[in-house]
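lol forgot to send this yesterday, sorry. struct tokens for the thing we talked abt
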């Protein structure tokens, strides 16, 4: 799907020590969203090496942030967006 002039979307999946299988299913669902310009990010409070490997293999941006301590909520998420920061006018947040 490609549409000129369509704004990009940043899809943020948050995780706070949920089982990896559940987080991976959520990430797969985020990747399956049919939209021309989307980027998927995992904000992982638990810092799971397994999830990091999963993300790197699928071009999902992985962030393990110490300041995301409130049950995986998007504290500091604008800083998590790819350069240029805040380029996407449409953020979407999914909680695993």
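and heres what i got for the seq, position by position
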């Amino acid at each position: 799907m490609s549409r000129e002039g369509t704004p990009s979307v940043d899809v943020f999946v948050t995780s706070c020590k949920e089982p990896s299988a559940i987080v991976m299913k959520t990430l797969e669902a985020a990747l399956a969203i049919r939209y021309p310009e989307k980027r998927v990010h995992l904000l992982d409070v638990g810092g799971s090496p397994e999830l990091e490997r999963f993300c790197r293999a699928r071009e999902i941006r992985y962030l393990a942030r110490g300041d995301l301590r409130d049950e995986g909520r998007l504290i500091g998420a604008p800083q998590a967006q790819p350069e240029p920061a805040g380029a996407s006018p449409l953020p979407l947040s999914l909680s695993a």
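The chain is about 25% helix and 25% strand. anyway ping me if u want another try
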